[in-house]
Amino acid sequence: MQMTVNNVTIGYTDEGRGVPLLFVHGFPLSRGAWQKQIDTLRSSYRVIAPDLRGFGESETGTGPVTMAQYADDLHVLLPQLKTGPVVLIGHSMGGYVSFAFLRQYPEMVRGLILVSTKAGKDTPEAAAGRRATAEKVQAMGVPVVIETMAPKMLAADNHDRAMAEEVRGFMAPSKPAGVIGALLGMAERPDATAELARISVPTLVITGADDTLISPTESEKLAQAIPGSQLNIIPQAGHLVAFEQPDKFNHVLEGWLDRAAFAVPVSDL
Ligand code: MLT
Is the beta carbon of 93 within 6 A of some atom in ligand 1? Predict the structure, then answer.
């Protein structure tokens, strides 16, 4: 499906009925990375997964795309879909977007799931590295980023070639301006650490034990800081834990959603 938000046409999935779950993908991925969650959860929940601007089937704007801008796009999308408050699920950069969304539109969040992400901002070195990568993408295109990022998405000892190809497929449609915009936007994102103690919605923090892009230590820090949150570290999974270990990931998600009382009896739908 497609919808124009803030002058950009974005692609999205909207399936199932029930409590709305909004899945926000990471960098430089697209909503296909959530397909194994969509397939499982759509029988009990309303599952919404957009391609952020510049990724997947979505058009791109120009210039840096702040996390606030992505959050604003989502905030324009949701009323058009008449969702009401959502359970917000953000992977990695999608987690940075989730912090922005929570900051800007807290009334639209009824629950939070932070997947392989972190609250801190970039160090000056990391921000400079992102700007340098953006210049490389400008000169050489998106494959530069795919070559660096794709091998880091799965656990180092996962040699499943079909899976690795699928990961590249999630990244392939990314537009150069979209990737550049995200890199520059991530480089200037604010630190969300001080906000963690004020998160008052039920929160699940989940990551892969073998994530080398964002250490599981970051998830431990999130869980320590967010009141009442639950932490799950999934073994034999790297950065793209939801795709690499979908059964274990979905099991944790479904159990948590159930316990947080987000499951709605079918008769109430
Ligand atoms: C992601 O998966 O979204 C990225 O690894 C996030 C980042 O580069 O900080």
Answer: yes
Query: End-to-end distance of the chain based on CA atoms, in angstroms?
Result: 23
The pTM of this model reads: 0.97
Domains and CATH numbers, the chain: 2-268 (3.40.50.1820)
Please give the distance, rounded to the nearest whole angstrom, from the Cα atom of residue 27 to the centre of ligand 1.
5
Of all atoms in ligand 1, which is nearest to the CA of residue 94? 3
**Strand pairing category for 203-208 and 20-24:** unpaired
Q: What is the pLDDT of residues 61-93, one digit of tens each?
A: 889 999 999 999 999 999 999 999 999 999 999
Write the pLDDT tens digit of every residue in 27-38. 999 999 999 999
Strand order in the sheet with 109-115: 2-5, 8-15, 46-50, 20-24, 86-91, 109-115, 203-208, 230-234
CA 107 vs CA 75, 101, 110, 246: distances in Å: 11, 10, 8, 30
Distance CA 96, CA 98 (A): 5
Query: Which residue from 89, 121, 214 has its CB within 8 A of the most atoms of ligand 1, so it is best to mutate?
Result: 214
Beta carbon of 186 within 6 Å of any ligand 1 atom: yes
